[in-house]
Amino acid sequence: MIGTDQPVQNQRKTSFRDHHPEYPTGNPADTTGDDDVILPNTPLDEAEQLAINYINLHKYCDNMLISNEQLNENQVDSVVDQMLDCSISQIISNEKPICPRFPREWSASEIVSEKNFTRTWARDVVEFIDWCSRFPVFVQLPYEDKITLFRSQFTQIALFDKCYRSYLEQKPGLVLGNGNVFPRDEQMQSQIDNQQLRNMFSSLQNMLFNDVVYPMTYIRMNEAEYVLIKANIFLAEGHHTINLSCAGRKLVETERERHRNAMYAKFDVLNPEPQAALHFAIQIEQMMNATESAALQMDKSMQTLDMFKKNSQLRTLVQECHMDKLQEMME
């Protein structure tokens, strides 16, 4: 085990869920009865309802898994290998086999390696599919727009999730979600056999800790804040926006404004003093910008990883999730 620090859940300020123990814990799609619907009247009401919905969504995705006892190591590796040759379209449409939904392990029991990072990456894709397929804005988009948004936002969301988990676990490194960690200690980093992997994460980790994980610790981010910021990252404006259909672009723009207003209404309540609220808002914006910058850096670095290549070419899913986005930005 790498590091023995205790998670910070009990050290954080009171979370939104502590004030709403009654929030639903099943499928978010099940909470559609008339008695359950509360129409928000203000941005703050909106924020509270969105936070409940997205906390519930995370809980639902966390429960979509199979136990380790059901897994055969060779079968998992075989399915992951097949998945790498699929397209985003095939993954979204569930046309091809995907990485098994094995439990996410956010501890730091082993240093990242070529094998466990391949599994981690594939599991990140599946978790993002599960989250997107129940995120209301994504569900309403035309099919081609779903592919565009998935491709453009996957890396940012995956990295933001890892930062939040690293903040919670308080381990000496970036936890990756398969029991693996990229350690902060340079001597421990030297134990990573794959130099390409080591080079990618060494620069990524410094950026993510300095500009995302440490600020999370400073503001003592709680779960409601995390899910609201994550939704705003997903809906953020970017180069991909111009590639959405007219209907898709209008929907995303409308929801982006609604989510931003809700997020900042929630933050204003947490920071009633104007100066404190402004400082908090600046930190959040910097955190979101840093996540975007780190995602672009990771997208560029992924093309250097031979572990994701076949016959010197990037595997299809890796190409679409990372390189196609960069090519789209240059057009």
Automatic annotation (TrEMBL):
It comes from the Eukaryota. The keyword Transcription applies. Pfam families: Hormone_recep. Residues 1-36 are annotated as: Disordered. Keywords: Receptor, Transcription, Transcription regulation. InterPro entries: C.elegans_NHRs, NHR-like_dom_sf, Nucl_hrmn_rcpt_lig-bd, Nuclear_hrmn_rcpt. Residues 83-324 form the NR LBD domain. The keyword Transcription applies. Residues 1-13 have a biased composition (Polar residues). This is NR LBD domain-containing protein. It comes from Diploscapter pachys.
